[in-house]
Amino acid sequence: MRIHRNLSIICTVQVKSQTDDIQNYLTDASNMPGGHADKLFVPETADEIVEILREANAAKIPVTVSGARTGTVGGAIPFGGFVVSLERLNKILKIDKDAMRATVEPGVILRDFQQAVEAEGLFYPPDPTEWSCQIGGTVATNASGARSFKYGATREFVTALKVVLADGEVTELRRESECERVTKDQASDISVTTSSGREIPIKVPSYLRPNVRKNVSGYFNSLPLDPIDLFIGSEGTLGVITEIEFKLLPKPESFFSGIVFFGDAADLLAFVNETRRLSFETRNRIGVSSSGPDIRTDIDASLIEYFDQNALGFISEKFPETPDDAAGAIFFEQETAAATEDALFEKWNELLEKYNADLERSWFTTSEQDREKMRAFRHALPVTVNERIARHRQRKVGTDMAVPDENFPSFLRYYKETLDASGLDYVIFGHIGDCHLHANMLPKDDAEAEKARHIYGRCVAQAIMLGGTVSAEHGIGKLKRKYLHAMMGERYLNEMAEVKRSIDPNGILGRGNMFEEKYLG
Fold first, then answer.
1. Options 3.30.465.10, 3.40.30.10, 1.10.10.10, 3.20.20.70; which CATH number does 92-250 get?
2. What angle do CA 431, 432, 438 make, to 5 degrees?
3. Rounded distance between C-alpha atoms, residue 481 and residue 370, angstroms
4. 89: β partners
5. pLDDT tens digit string along 424-463?
6. Between β-strands 39-42 and 170-174, what pairing exists: parallel, antiparallel or unpaired?
7. Residue 103: is it exposed, middle or buried by C-beta count within 10 angstroms (0-12/13-18/19+)?
8. What is the CA radius of gyration of the chain?
């Protein structure tokens, strides 16, 4: 423990300035090179963060917020200034079973939070692939994952935030009720009030958001709009989150899960289309979630995940029982209960038979133990991909675009035709229920890496042309700024910068994330 005596109020925050001590905080899962910082702060309290930001703002020193650094777009990589790690703000402050609410600090690990909630008979649906992430990071990036098909992204579950702004002032934001929000349908301006009573007016950006179910490209601006929504998904550019309140759901009694193999890609896509349609019809009739044990007996998938033929080849290295002649596979789940299990099994079985699924070699379960094995199957793919790419000392090039439902078939066809023609090794997998797939290109040398980056740019252009988003769940960070520019253009990036200037006039927070510094003037 060191005392940092440059602060106007001396605090016992841990401070490190030696290169060896800071090194682990200069990169994230993107492996973006060049990160550097002058000091690392590891505070234990929100008050310490207040003092750090107050002094940094006065001196106009950039501040990068660091969590578990599992992000893939370079958002946690500093390029000068201070790093503030939230790892020691890691307490689950309260789980209120009756109110179905939980309050946590940002450094809590997602898997630990999910387990603590489930121990109380409750359920927190957001399920990003990386369970070791910190929950504050999931709010800062509006993380989603497989279950977003039914439950949406993290935003849907955040009910309140405490945030330290760039100048050290604190704001407490609580989501308004629907009846209070509806009056803001035509609003172009909102405001944030700090604990000192200062009101900060903010002009809401005017860009239209793509008609996709997953989109984390730019500040949220859909109306009706709560101020809290600007901070969710803002990638550390508007404030430092120090406390989060989530709404929770009743824990499902059980899940019916399946990994289903198809011999024909057309049958697989037809199965996905009908599963999506039936699920949406069920939700429109019953709602997203019941207030108690799930009593629905109609198909309502909570997730629909896709693996192409190449992905299955990779997975077979760890799961040799994977059929080697399948055209692709779907991993689905639905919440169930003892009273509904038989009826749901019959309906899923009928649907799978209709589309010629390979039922003999597919896997189904309702047990928790076997379901974890299925999730391990899903997670085996990125692990195997990373192992393969490491052999060639290259980095994978992975897409994160989503397009409107009606344009998804042509976008998937574009992926396959373009990648097949390229000669590159690749896999396509992901959240097909949300029309959001990841195409991972696996270059074996520098020339193939250059080709992969060129193809990535072409895929971005195709997604934009089809009315899609350049980032459905990974965010923009520093690596995708030029693609956000391609999607939005100068006008709307300037509107985003105006939001940031309103809240962070000196532009110290998350500098370089989402848009270049030149937009801050």
1. 3.30.465.10
2. 60
3. 41
4. none
5. 999 999 999 999 999 999 999 999 999 999 999 999 999 9
6. unpaired
7. middle
8. 23
